C-alpha cells in the first residue's frame, strides 16, 4: 500500500478491514507499508472487496503476488496523490492571495474555494473512517478545524491550514518511503537472471525460477543468484551485502555461498541449495518485514495512549470553546478560534510516529550489518541484557575442530571406527560431525579393495539426533551410537577400560566422541577446537557494555574449563539442553537478568527459548534460527555486542523523539490556549514536530558501530 504512513492510518485500515466478511485477523504496518489479513478457517477473502475498501480510505493498493519487484517501485512525490494535492492546493492558495490584492471586492471567496478543494479528499477519508467506527482521526480533527474556521470568517487561515496539512502529510510520506527503501534495497541484491549450466551449455534464465539441484555459472564481478555450494572453482567473495563483513572471504569447492554476494575474481560453478523464495536474502527480507510489523512494548503503549488522547483533546477543545465566553467577556468567535487551533496542535502524529520510525530504522541498520532481530520487542529488550550465556563449539571456538586421536577396541581398525562414525554423522552441520567427515575423506579411510574416488558412506537407517548426547542409527545392520562419554554414565553403562584414557584426553582440552555398538564402546575419536580469533575481542566489548558473559556447554567439564580460563570468562560444562535452560531460569529468578542466550544447534533450542532474548549464530541449524529471537549472520562474537549497542542507540533515539514530540505539544498547547499562536502556527508546529522526529529516526540509518566488537 502507498499512503499509509502513520499509526493513525494503521488503526483506520484495521478497523475497516476487520468489518469485512470472513476476516479473522488484520495487521497493518505503516513501517512496511503493507497489510496482512488472515481468513477464518475454511473461508476465502475477497481481494476485490479488500482493495475497494482500502481505496475508499484513500490508499493506493498494490498486489504483491503479481510482481513483487515492480510493486515496490516508488513513484516520484509529485506523482503521488498527496503530491498532487499539495501542488493543487498550493496553486489555489497563491491564486487566492493574488486575487485578494488585485480584486479586494471578491472578499474571502477565493480562500473558501482553495479551502474546499484541498479539504474534499480529507473530509472523504474522515467520513470513510467514521463509517467503520473510527471517528477520532487526524482527518476528522482537520475537517472540524477548517470548517470551523470558515464558519467564523477565518477563510484565509483555513486555506493556509489545509495547505500546510497537505504539505505535512506529503513530507511524512516521503520520510516513511525513505525508511522503507532501506529494506526494499535488499531485494535488489539478487540479480534478475542466472547462467544455468545444462548438458555442458550455458543459458540465461530468470533467477527466481532456480531450484535446488540445478547448477549455475557465476563469472567474476557477478552477484550470486542463489544460495548454493561451490562445485568447481575458487574465488574471493564479497559477503558484505548479506552479513556486513567488509573483508572478502576466500571460497572454494565444497563451501557455501549466498545469494546477493559478489564473486570477485574467479569463475565458479555453483549447485543451488535453496529456491529463490527460501534463499538467504529472501529470509532476511521476510524476517525484517515481520520484525518491523511487530510493535515494541513502548510503541504499543504510545498507540494506546494516542487512542484515548484524541477523544480527550476533543473534549478539552469543547471546554475551551464554551467555558470562557460563559465565565468571562471573551467573544465566542475568539474562544472557538482557540479551540480550533487547539485541535490542530493536539494532533498526535509526531508522537505516534516517534517510536515505530526509530525502531524500523534500527532494524534496518541491523539487517544491513548481518544482525537480524525479530521485532521491535526484541530490539528493545536487547539493550537491557545484563548477562549473556554462550555455547562453546562454533560460538566461542572456531567451530572447526580437528581429529587428533582415534582409538579402537576389540581389534576393530581405526579406519573402520572413523568410517562408521562419519556414516552416522552424514548431513549434520555440527562442527564436530563435519570434522569427523572431513577426516574420513582426507585421510583415505576406505574399505579394502575400493578406490578413494567415488566412494560413498553407507546409508543410515533410523537415524536420529540425541539432543545434547549425540546421534544414533543403523549402519550396515549394526545398531550404532556416536555419543559423548557422559552418555555412558547416564545410561549406567560402564566404560571401565576407557576411564583413564578418557580422563587423560579431556585434561588436554579435547572433546571426545565414543562409538557404541549395542550400547558397548567399540571406538573413540578425540577432537580439539581452538577459540575463535574474534572471541576475546567480542567478550571484551560485552564487558565494556556492562554485560557479563558466561559459557554453557555440553562438552566435558575439563575442556570447557580450559577454554573458559583461556578466554577469561566463567564457564560450566557437561550440561544437557534442559540444564542450560535451567541455568537461564535460575539467573532470571535471582534477578541477574534480563538474560540472553547465544547458540547454534538443536541442543541450544530450550535455552534460547527460555532466555529473554535468544540469539542464533547464522550458520547454525534451522531449529536454532527458528527458536531464536535474533540471529547473527556474520558469525562473530562481536556481533552480540553490536546488537546490544544498536538497541541502546535505538532506544535513545526513541526517547529523544518522544521528548521532542511532547515538548512541541506542551509548548504550543499552552501558547494556543493563551491566544499567542493561531491556527496556521499550530499546523506548522504539528507538521514540524512530525518531520523532525522522522528525520531524527532516519538519522539512525547512518549509525556506525565504530569497531564495537
UniProtKB/TrEMBL annotation:
It holds the Pfam family E1-E2_ATPase. Belongs to the cation transport ATPase (P-type) (TC 3.A.3) family. Type IB subfamily. It catalyses: Zn(2+)(in) + ATP + H2O = Zn(2+)(out) + ADP + phosphate + H(+). Coiled coil: none annotated. The keyword Metal-binding applies. Keywords: ATP-binding, Cell membrane, Membrane, Metal-binding, Nucleotide-binding, Translocase, Transmembrane, Transmembrane helix. Residues 1-62 form the HMA domain. Its EC number is 7.2.2.12. SUPFAM superfamilies: Calcium ATPase, transduction domain A, Calcium ATPase, transmembrane domain M, HAD-like, HMA, heavy metal-associated domain. GO terms for molecular function: ATP binding; ATP hydrolysis activity; cadmium ion transmembrane transporter activity; metal ion binding; P-type zinc transporter activity. The chain crosses the membrane at residues 83-103, 305-327, 339-365, 658-676, 682-701. It is a multi-pass membrane protein. This is P-type Zn(2+) transporter. It comes from Vreelandella boliviensis LC1.
Amino acid at each position: 500500500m502507498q499512503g499509509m504512513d502513520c499509526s493513525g492510518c494503521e488503526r483506520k485500515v484495521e478497523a475497516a478491514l476487520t468489518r469485512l466478511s470472513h476476516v479473522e485477523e488484520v495487521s497493518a504496518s505503516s513501517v512496511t507499508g503493507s497489510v496482512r489479513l488472515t481468513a477464518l478457517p475454511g473461508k476465502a477473502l475477497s481481494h476485490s472487496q479488500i482493495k475497494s475498501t482500502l481505496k475508499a480510505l484513500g490508499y493506493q493498493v498494490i498486489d504483491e503476488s503479481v510482481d513483487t519487484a515492480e510493486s515496490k517501485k516508488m513513484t516520484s512525490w509529485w506523482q503521488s496523490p498527496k503530491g498532487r494535492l499539495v501542488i493543487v492546493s498550493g496553486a489555489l492558495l497563491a491564486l487566492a492571495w493574488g486575487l485578494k490584492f488585485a480584486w479586494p471586492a471578491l472578499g474571502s471567496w477565493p480562500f473558501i474555494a482553495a479551502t474546499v478543494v484541498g479539504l474534499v479528499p480529507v473530509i472523504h477519508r474522515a467520513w470513510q473512517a467514521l463509517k467503520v467506527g473510527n471517528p477520532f482521526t487526524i482527518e476528522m480533527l482537520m475537517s472540524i478545524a477548517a470548517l470551523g474556521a470558515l464558519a467564523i470568517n477565518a477563510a484565509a487561515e483555513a486555506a493556509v491550514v489545509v495547505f500546510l496539512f497537505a504539505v505535512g502529510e506529503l513530507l511524512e510520506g516521503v520520510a516513511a518511503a525513505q525508511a522503507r527503501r532501506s529494506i526494499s534495497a535488499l531485494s535488489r541484491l539478487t540479480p534478475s537472471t542466472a547462467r544455468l549450466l545444462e548438458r555442458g551449455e550455458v543459458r540465461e534464465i530468470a533467477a527466481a525460477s532456480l531450484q535446488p539441484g540445478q547448477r549455475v555459472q557465476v563469472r567474476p564481478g557477478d552477484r550470486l543468484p542463489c544460495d548454493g555450494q561451490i562445485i568447481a572453482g575458487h574465488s574471493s567473495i564479497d559477503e558484505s551485502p548479506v552479513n556486513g563483513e567488509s573483508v572478502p572471504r576466500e571460497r572454494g569447492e565444497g563451501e557455501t555461498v549466498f545469494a546477493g554476494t559478489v564473486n570477485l575474481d574467479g569463475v565458479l560453478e555453483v549447485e543451488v541449495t535453496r529456491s529463490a523464495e527460501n534463499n538467504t536474502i529472501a529470509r532476511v527480507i521476510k524476517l525484517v518485514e515481520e520484525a518491523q510489523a511487530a510493535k515494541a512494548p513502548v510503541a504499543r503503549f504510545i498507540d494506546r495512549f494516542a487512542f484515548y488522547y484524541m477523544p480527550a483533546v476533543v473534549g478539552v477543545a469543547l471546554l475551551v470553546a464554551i467555558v470562557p465566553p460563559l465565565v468571562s467577556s471573551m467573544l465566542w468567535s475568539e474562544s472557538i478560534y482557540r479551540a480550533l487551533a487547539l485541535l490542530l496542535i493536539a494532533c498526535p502524529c509526531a508522537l505516534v510516529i516517534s517510536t515505530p520510525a526509530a525502531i524500523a530504522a534500527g532494524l534496518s541498520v541491523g539487517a544491513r550489518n548481518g544482525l537480524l532481530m525479530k521485532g521491535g520487542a526484541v530490539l528493545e529488550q536487547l539493550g537491557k541484557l545484563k548477562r549473556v550465556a554462550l555455547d562453546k563449539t562454533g560460538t566461542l571456538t572456531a567451530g572447526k575442530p580437528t581429529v587428533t586421536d582415534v582409538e579402537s577396541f576389540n581389534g576393530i581398525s581405526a579406519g573402520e571406527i572413523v568410517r562408521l562414525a562419519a556414516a552416522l554423522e552424514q548431513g549434520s552441520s555440527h562442527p564436530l560431525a563435519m570434522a569427523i567427515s572431513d577426516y574420513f575423506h582426507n585421510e583415505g579411510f576406505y574399505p579394502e579393495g575400493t578406490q578413494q574416488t567415488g566412494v560413498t558412506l553407507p546409508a543410515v537407517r533410523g537415524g536420529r539426533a540425541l539432543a545434547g548426547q549425540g546421534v544414533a542409527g543403523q549402519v550396515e545392520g549394526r545398531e550404532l551410537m556416536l555419543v559423548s562419554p557422559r552418555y555412558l554414565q547416564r545410561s549406567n553403562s560402564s566404560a571401565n577400560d576407557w576411564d583413564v584414557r578418557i580422563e587423560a584426553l579431556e585434561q588436554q582440552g579435547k572433546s571426545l566422541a565414543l562409538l557404541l555398538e549395542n550400547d558397548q564402546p567399540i571406538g573413540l575419536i578425540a577432537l580439539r577446537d581452538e577459540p575463535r580469533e574474534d572471541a576475546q575481542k567480542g567478550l571484551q566489548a560485552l564487558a565494556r557494555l556492562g554485560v557479563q558473559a558466561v559459557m554453557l556447554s555440553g562438552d566435558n567439564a575439563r575442556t570447557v574449563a580450559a577454554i573458559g580460563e583461556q578466554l577469561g570468562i566463567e564457564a560450566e560444562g557437561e550440561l544437557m539442553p534442559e540444564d542450560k535452560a535451567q541455568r537461564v531460569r535460575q539467573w532470571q529468578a535471582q534477578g541477574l537478568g534480563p538474560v540472553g542466550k547465544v547458540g547454534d544447534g538443536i541442543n541450544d533450542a530450550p535455552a534460547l527459548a527460555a532466555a529473554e532474548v535468544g540469539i542464533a549464530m547464522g550458520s547454525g541449524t534451522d531449529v536454532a534460527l527458528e527458536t531464536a529471537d535474533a540471529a547473527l549472520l556474520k558469525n562473530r562474537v562481536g556481533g552480540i555486542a553490536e546488537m546490544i549497542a544498536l538497541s541502546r542507540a535505538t532506544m535513545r533515539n526513541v526517547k529523544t523523539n518522544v521528548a521532542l514530540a511532547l515538548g512541541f505539544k506542551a509548548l504550543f498547547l499552552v501558547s494556543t490556549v493563551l491566544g499567542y499562536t493561531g491556527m496556521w502556527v499550530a499546523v506548522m508546529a504539528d507538521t514540524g514536530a512530525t518531520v523532525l522526529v522522522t528525520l531524527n529516526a532516519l538519522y539512525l540509518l547512518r549509525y556506525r558501530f565504530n569497531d564495537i566488537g
